[in-house]
Amino acid sequence: MDNKTNRDWKDKLHEIIYEADTPAGKLFDLILLVAILASIVLVMLESVKSIDARFHTFLDISEWIITILFTIEYIARIVSVKRPIKYITSFYGIIDLLSTIPKYLSIIFAGTHALVALRALRLLRVFRILKLVRFLGASNNLVLALKASRAKISVFLFAVVIIAVIIGTIMYLVEGEENGFTNIPKSVYWCIVTLTTVGFGDITPQTPIGQFIASLVMILGYGIIAVPTGIVSAEYTAQNKPKEAPKDNPVHVNTQCCVNCLNEKHQDGAQFCYKCGCELHHD
Amino acid sequence: MDNKTNRDWKDKLHEIIYEADTPAGKLFDLILLVAILASIVLVMLESVKSIDARFHTFLDISEWIITILFTIEYIARIVSVKRPIKYITSFYGIIDLLSTIPKYLSIIFAGTHALVALRALRLLRVFRILKLVRFLGASNNLVLALKASRAKISVFLFAVVIIAVIIGTIMYLVEGEENGFTNIPKSVYWCIVTLTTVGFGDITPQTPIGQFIASLVMILGYGIIAVPTGIVSAEYTAQNKPKEAPKDNPVHVNTQCCVNCLNEKHQDGAQFCYKCGCELHHD
Amino acid sequence: MDNKTNRDWKDKLHEIIYEADTPAGKLFDLILLVAILASIVLVMLESVKSIDARFHTFLDISEWIITILFTIEYIARIVSVKRPIKYITSFYGIIDLLSTIPKYLSIIFAGTHALVALRALRLLRVFRILKLVRFLGASNNLVLALKASRAKISVFLFAVVIIAVIIGTIMYLVEGEENGFTNIPKSVYWCIVTLTTVGFGDITPQTPIGQFIASLVMILGYGIIAVPTGIVSAEYTAQNKPKEAPKDNPVHVNTQCCVNCLNEKHQDGAQFCYKCGCELHHD
Amino acid sequence: MDNKTNRDWKDKLHEIIYEADTPAGKLFDLILLVAILASIVLVMLESVKSIDARFHTFLDISEWIITILFTIEYIARIVSVKRPIKYITSFYGIIDLLSTIPKYLSIIFAGTHALVALRALRLLRVFRILKLVRFLGASNNLVLALKASRAKISVFLFAVVIIAVIIGTIMYLVEGEENGFTNIPKSVYWCIVTLTTVGFGDITPQTPIGQFIASLVMILGYGIIAVPTGIVSAEYTAQNKPKEAPKDNPVHVNTQCCVNCLNEKHQDGAQFCYKCGCELHHD
To answer: Can you tell me the ipTM of this complex?
Structure first.
């Protein structure tokens, strides 16, 4: 009986933390989202010398509060799943751990720069909560259109890279090291900067023939920017037309998550996990 | 009887100032538009040192003329509505006041730089007159398409910001302060500059690995620029197709404005304000 | 009888020069196109100091040859029309004269720089021959789509300018003269550079708040670039759909040109000018 | 009989090298693709001074291995076709030779810089293998859409060049040599940089009137970028609509290649070359 209560309590916790169907679950996700964004703002502000100098103590305390919150959340996540090892070794389990420990490590390895990188990983956690976005429902067609055009855009971007390598090599030979095109990788970098119409201007062609080739590259880039746009447009138009959603590839809006195996893609109204058979929880 | 004449006169004034259905109303809007644009040009020219030095007196007098015109208009607007307080406290009421007083304030606080900001607010007044644009009728479908795609474009831009923060942090760690990436906010700024293909070139990656990441960011930016374009294209195509305008979300072309409550969204042919029941005026 | 022969000869000349229906007419247009392009290349090369120094005599002689060719053509055009005054005072008549005289003027006003501008006007003559393009037939739908979307794109560009002025003024106040935003027109120029994703980098925001606003402007620019693209896409799709060309607004492919009044928009198979009744010539 | 075996062996080799229908053929193409990409990476790394200094021996040996592999392949290609001369004088035959010999030539002409150009030609060989891409099948509609819009995009790009020349000349006259617009070709280069929204910033307008013209050019560029995008979008939508592929212009997916005349465009199920009547080989 005690065991039953214990399991119920764990189930409740699981529902709050892993799912977003209940008000409590949505609230938890919202608080977590705010905490993550706040922690990112902290990392940013700390990197600014002048701010860090003036508000060091405040930033330090805030960071500890965030770290403790993340620690509690991490423990709660481990406790509420049936197979903690599976969670700990999962992608988000590792991210959760890595985004919690930097502050603890900073006591041992004081002033290690690379810990900032670990803390920046926290942003990846946003994507877990973004299953919330699914509820917006608004962007479903968009997601489908992007899925449908993924292959074509990849082929296109691959072609862009090939063109950049060929033109980059030509520009290396034409302009040479004295005009900033010190080696082929740098020339290719310049070519990508130009082809994508970014145009930093840190390296620019100086010889007339180099400027002529650059002009061709720019006009080419101007012309081919039409390709990915055309693809997405057309796919999106295609997705929009049949008002009945395509059955074979629907965007998943159910946020239930199996307590046992952490599997997430359950059908609406599912009573049991379709993978391990473990019972799913409803309100 | 005298009261009746007085009301008629006010009604006439109201019709001229607030509506654009009558020739007089259109003329008033046109003059106001010219005055606003002229006042903006004045603000611009005054900010140019060399022009201000040579034509100071001319600019000063012109500014006084504009200010007096705006003052008269402001008083006329107050007089012609039934509830002046409602107009004065409304968004455009405040804008009208703020764009009128700078010149008066400049007598008291001579040479205060921030008054320029107040005068620049005048441009916001253009949007009030832009209800004129509705008569063009041409851009109705466009407005509908933009409304329909607003939510999706917001989601997209939010995703762009998240990507910029993640890549910005990575670039801060890779390039470091010696190459201009002095802190994370500045790195994020650089990343947005690059991702949107603007490419100022004030900060550029100097290390090979930094240039490689930059190349990926640029190609990514080149690829994802297709997304908002695709959305607007598809929505616009969708809006264009059914020649009968969608009934639930029509663009409003009636410019009548209630004398009593300043409400503007009246149906064509409406005799009374649908909010306060006050009679509307026709030619 | 002699008069008849004379008229026939003039008519023949008119057909060759002004129309492109006959082989002789097409050949004339082609030679003229080559001559115009060659003359433009000459103007370009002359402006390059090092080339002008080495090949001055060659360029000078070539320029004289082109000038004499253009003179002959100009006289032939005057002779072959019935009302020479009408041609001389027409848009292309003036362009033809202005693109012919610079070399003659250069004898009188030696070394006047502005004569280059007159010679550059020759490029405008290309557009007259571009009625040849109509024969390609390929771009008719495109032309229609552009015509249909002209009004909407104008409204859009007008909105871009308003946004640029408002943001430009804000940036002038935020960044100030010490960071390169010396006056409002320059700030607006910077804003247009940024909003259109050109990003020269000659002026860049230096303050954190300025960089933040710049980021918003860039993301905004990234978002709104979708609008003109969406418009053209949708219009072009719409133009493409009904295979029967819209009757009310057809692209004109007939190149006949009235000898009398220089009117050009004749229907296919027209025997007489629809404006002055003068007979049109066929092969 | 021996002759028969010999021919069979050659046929087998031909099928492996020139076709991609069999597993062996696909494997060969894959290995070749990897070898080409590896050779390109080698060329790139060699151009980087610091890497070349440290790993010169390794790069040199790798280059020799690649060269020998390419030599074997080149000989195999000559052996397996019936008319070696035709292969040797074909486009890809020359590319294959040119991308093989640089290392041999480097023994004779030690340190000749231009040999890098020859080695860079290897990238062109990728396109031969890219007939593999056809099997992806995904981009067929895209290829058709691009083919259909090629003519229109060419006309568009031609118009862009004309605009660039006219505006470039105007900017040369307005800004003059003291502001970096040293000659008309350079001005045209600047104009293309601006019109395509690349914006290097190596040359920027300094005079107010120049900045005003530049603003117009940028807004123009912003507006006309919509044109190629609209064309591709619309064409792609058009290609997507009729699910039955257009019969008159299908993308070729058959990779059979005639042993005799190297002709490649065979119909599926073809038994004999449609050009020379030579029998084709199947698995």
So the answer is: 0.75
